[in-house]
Design goal:
It is built from 15 helices and 21 strands. With 502 residues, it is an alpha/beta fold. It folds into 3 domains: 207 residues, FAD/NAD(P)-binding domain (3-Layer(bba) Sandwich); 112 residues, FAD/NAD(P)-binding domain; 112 residues, Enolase-like, domain 1. α2 runs parallel beside α10. The longest helix has 26 residues. It catalyses: N(6)-[(R)-dihydrolipoyl]-L-lysyl-[protein] + NAD(+) = N(6)-[(R)-lipoyl]-L-lysyl-[protein] + NADH + H(+). This is Dihydrolipoyl dehydrogenase. Its cofactor is FAD.
Length: 502
């Protein structure tokens, strides 16, 4: 036992030693810059990575300008992605609960109906409030905000076609490309945002489709499919791969798919789309097995294309100044986020790595810290991922398949929500927690949660991985009772010893 504890401490110390410590540096200037003046930092893109980088740069005393083509800050995430989708997920969940669960809890009513315009209005209100909030933060931190499409014309100059007309040149000692990503298209499937929509169009449908086909069983497709499924659509998900969410832990994924099927979502896996006909009132989608075989026609009112995203790096002047990208269009950067062109940096979805808003934010902070002479740091091994269905699925670290492939001896602890008192009390006990730790040291390697509020609970595990904690560390930490978080504690107890309530 003493040897195991010593090994765990050494594992934790090794993690801490890998974390760089900031060396202080500051500049005194704070204030608005005009486009005619040279900024210390110019950020192209006002999404999660870009606006966070701009604010952090200003906080570090750097004269900062942010260029955003949309005319509204927050990028895809805030305007047509993370935030509006979560608003609709919440509203649709409330309707579904009222329809299917309230009576069971003793709450009865009649004439329940969906007011879709009101639901969309609530979504838009949330988005508008948050975009204005970021503008307020820009003013507070004295970040100059230029509305227009920015294009690199030299390593220190950005040409901007202004939203209100005309153009200007913005000069900067350091330029950060934070242009985000765009919807990945499918050959032969043309998105018109009417019958065939992207996630943007799926967030703004004027009526509930009777039949919705989702192409792609990733995070976005399953979330948007869940929204319309709850509101009454017959949802079919078509996926080329043999599994939904391929990056998810296999055991969790299987249980997750069963849960979605229980909610009446249908899946056609190992299936490819070979034809689309929009000539009629709806859409006729022709599909066949991924390996080839007999074709099938699926009728739909709306088809959502959710086959992933690609970096938005074309047409922004990278070629003109010699910035290198990979075959997928991702900008290649070093550990300080600098491209091969001195003074030009890139972050977020524009570079390799997970295309997640919170990852982009971490990139943005670390990048400007490097520019300011500090030591920025992002640990990509501890970036969490969440699918915001109900229940939610959240994970951090390695899947069991990844750990097994690495050859490291490991141990697994699991705890079902059916044995969690809070989940039972609220009658929401579908799911489980799974913890994987290294056998020799008990250092946690991965945590996977399917539960109500999993996206909130996962951060205890993120912190544990960040600091090299063991499953015993979490198991011996007092958790409030009754909470769903106790399921994580019990899973950790089961990992290194035995759970109490199972």
């Amino acid at each position: 036992m003493a040897m195991a504890s010593l090994a765990r401490r050494r594992a934790a110390e090794a993690v801490l030693l890998r974390r760089p410590h900031a060396a202080g540096v500051s500049a005194a200037w704070r204030g608005y810059a005009s486009s005619a003046e040279e900024s210390d930092v110019v950020v192209i893109g006002g999404g999660p990575g870009g606006y966070v980088a701009a604010i952090k740069a200003a906080q570090l005393g750097l004269k900062t300008t942010c260029i955003e083509k949309r005319g509204a800050l927050g990028g895809t995430c805030l305007n047509v992605g993370c935030i509006p989708s979560k608003a609709l997920l919440h509203s649709s969940h409330m309707y579904h609960e009222a329809k299917s669960s309230f009576a069971h809890h003793g709450v009865k009513f009649s004439n329940l109906e969906v007011d879709l315009p009101a639901m969309m209005s609530q979504k838009d209100k949330a988005v508008a409030g948050l975009t204005k909030g970021i503008e307020g933060l820009f003013k507070k931190n004295k970040v100059e905000y230029v509305k227009g499409f920015g294009k690199l014309v030299s390593p220190s100059e950005v040409s901007v076609d202004l939203v209100d007309g005309g153009s200007t040149i913005v000069k900067g000692k350091n330029i950060i490309v934070a242009t985000g990503s765009d919807v990945k298209s499918l050959p032969g499937v043309t998105i018109d945002e009417k019958k065939i929509v992207s996630s943007t169009g799926a967030l703004a449908l004027s009526e509930i489709p009777k039949k919705l086909v989702v192409i792609g069983a990733g995070y976005i497709g399953l979330e948007m499919g869940s929204v319309w499924n709850r509101l009454g659509s017959e949802v079919t998900v078509v996926e080329f791969a043999p599994d939904i969410v391929p990056s998810m832990d296999g055991e969790i994924r299987k249980q997750f798919q069963r849960m979605l099927e229980k909610q009446k979502m249908k899946f056609m896996l190992k299936t490819k789309v070979v034809g689309v006909d929009t000539s009629g009132s709806g859409v006729k989608l022709t599909v066949e097995p991924a390996a080839g075989g007999e074709q099938t026609i699926i009728d739909a009112d709306i088809v959502l294309v959710s086959a992933g995203r690609v970096p938005y790096t074309a047409g922004i002047g990278l070629d003109a100044i010699g910035v290198e990208t990979d075959k997928g269009g991702r900008i290649l950067v070093d550990k300080r986020f600098m491209t091969n062109v001195k003074g030009v940096y890139a972050i977020g979805d524009a570079i390799p790595g997970p295309m997640l808003a919170h990852k982009a934010e971490e990139d943005g902070v670390a990048c400007v810290e490097f520019i300011a002479g500090k030591e920025g740091h992002v640990d990509y091994d501890t970036v969490p991922g969440v699918v915001y269905t109900h229940p939610e699925v959240a994970s951090v670290g390695k899947t069991e398949e990844q750990v097994k492939a690495s050859g490291v001896a490991y141990q697994v602890g699991k705890f079902p929500l059916l044995a969690n008192s809070r989940a039972k009390a609220i009658d929401d006990a579908e799911g489980m927690v799974k913890v994987i730790s290294e056998k020799e040291t008990d250092r946690i390697l991965g945590v996977h949660i399917m539960s109500p509020g999993a996206g909130e609970i996962i951060h205890e595990a993120v912190l544990a991985l960040q600091y090299g904690a063991s499953s015993e560390d979490i198991a011996r930490t007092c958790h409030a009772h009754p909470t769903v978080s106790e399921a994580l504690k019990e899973a950790c107890m089961q990992t290194y010893d035995k759970a109490i309530h199972m």
